[in-house]
Amino acid sequence: MSSPHSILVVGPSWVGDMVMAQSLFIALKQQTPDCLIDVLAPAWSLPLLARMPQVRQGIAMPLGHGQFGLSARFRLGRQLQGRYDQAIVLPNSWKSALVPFFAGIPLRIGYLGELRWGLLNDARRLDKNG
Q: Is 123 helix (H, G, I), strand (E, B) or coil?
């Protein structure tokens, strides 16, 4: 028996964007009903994530919006190592893709944004016209 597909979503920093992210969580559950979704997000959003039945757990990001904190991101990535099959990075910043990279998550998906070529291995171009 194989283990359920586990997904780490790097969530947005803003309340409206986090609410809209629930549509992604719903789509993921529709696609793979037994998948496990954890969301790395600001601590303020953990009560909101707890009310989303698709999310198994919220993980508090130890850094505030705009903080670089390379060593903290490295440590967090190493703590998460081996726990996820896939990561979806919602913010477009370079630093937002560091934790999944440091965690060694095999499939790291996100939009190109800020030169993230090496950090994402499934980088998508945003079609703003479609």
A: strand
Identify residue 61 by its one-letter amino acid code: M
Pick the closest to residue 120 from 79, 98, 15 (CA basis): 98
**Angstrom distance (rounded) from CA 26 to CA 40:** 17
Q: Point out which residues pair with 9 in neighbouring strands.
A: 39, 88
Residue 80 contacts residue 99 (beta carbons within 8 Å): yes
Per residue in 101-130, pLDDT (tens digit) is: 999 999 999 998 767 778 999 988 877 776
Residue 38 CB contacts under 8 Å (≥ 6 apart), including other chains: 6, 7, 8, 9, 55, 56, 57, 58, 59, 83, 84
The pTM (predicted TM-score) of the whole model is 0.91
Query: Average pLDDT, stretch 83-101?
Result: 94
